[in-house]
Specification:
Blueprint (H helix, E strand, L loop, with lengths): L9 E2 L6 E2 L11 H9 L3 H16 L1 H15 L2
Antiparallel strand pairs: 1-2
Helix pairs in contact: 2-3
């Protein structure tokens, strides 16, 4: 059986950064990278939501909802 050498780098479980095993203990995740890594699996859903929300905001119902929200904010 062929034995593979151990990998030189492994991904961080929280942010996906490629780390050498000896540097993993002192690694601190970058917050922006961590958020991007967590959102990666749902990126297509987020894109679809943004597209659908933009389309709805341009519809008559969406424009009225924006108008009504602004009017309610101004009213005491």
């Amino acid at each position: 059986m062929l034995a593979l050498p151990p990998p030189r780098h492994m991904p961080c479980d929280r942010c996906g950064a490629s780390l050498r095993p000896e540097a993993a203990a002192e690694h601190v995740c970058d917050e922006e990278r961590r958020l991007s890594y967590e959102l990666f699996p749902v990126r297509q859903e987020v894109d679809r939501l943004e597209t659908e929300l933009s389309a709805w905001l341009e519809s008559p119902a969406g424009r009225f909802a924006q108008y009504d929200a602004a009017r309610r904010r101004r009213s005491p």
